[in-house]
Amino acid sequence: MSEKFDLSFDCVDGDLHYFLMTEEGRTDGPLSICLHGLGSHKESHLGTAVSFCRAGFRSVGIDLSRHGRRPGSDTRDAMLDIDYVGTMFGMIQQSVSDVTRIINHFGVSSAAVHGVSMGGIVLFAAMIVEPRITVASVAMGSPDWIGLTENLGIDPHHPALDRVARYSPLEHAEKMHPCALLMLHGTDDDVVPIEGVQLLNEKLEPLYRDTPGRFEFIVYRDLGHTYLDDMQERSVSWALKHI
């Protein structure tokens, strides 16, 4: 198999910056999309893109809202300091819309999406509204937005929390089925606690009872908020199996 790859950079509508990586000379293959974590950027997952390309995918990485080359990236941290809940919720909502925009841009009817940390939080929400996500793998993300605010010590009377609770993916878990979903999380993650994923697992297990091979929850004992090579390898294998 060729170890040479074509890499190009472009943007959608002048603001959604992305890269596309393919095996050299290849223009076909299913689409995979990688969503990075808070404070990172699309280039942080070029290695992940290589792994997806080796498996035959066209691999795309996007800058999430207020990250990388996106508008507002230079004021993101200051805005988080001023209003963490409002700023974070806004970035997540915009990034969910961006997943749909990038799928539209490539004109595909099916995509495999891999989300890491904040990217995983975005992916859980995107699964609720985007049926073309037919394969998903989430590393260190959570569908429980209220649980995340509690972990951060946010005032439970914050005016935005009612809205956050209403849109929390954990409250709409049934809409994630029948997407092939892989969840990967460490038991000692104190940044994005595993409890939200455990709650989602309890809700989804009955829905996947007739198709158990399309749903899996991998727990890493004694692991904190760390992205492992094993998470990447399992995600690529999962996408290849179910796309």
Helix content, binned percent = 25-40%
Our count of domains comes out at 1
Coarse morphology: globular
Number of helices: 8
Let me know the average pLDDT. Answer: 96
Whole-angstrom Rg = 17 Å
Number of strands: 8
Strand content: 15-25%
CATH topology: Rossmann fold
* Sheet with the most strands: spatial strand order: 1-2-4-3-5-6-7-8
- Could you give the distance between the termini? 20 Å
CATH class: Alpha Beta
Provide the structure class: alpha/beta
Question: Uncertain segments of ≥5 residues (pLDDT<50)?
Answer: none
Name the helix and strand elements from N-terminus to C-terminus, one letter apiece.
Answer: EEEHEHHEHEHHEHEH
Largest sheet: 8 strands, mixed
Q: What is the CATH superfamily?
A: Alpha/Beta hydrolase fold, catalytic domain
Which CATH architecture?
Answer: 3-Layer(aba) Sandwich
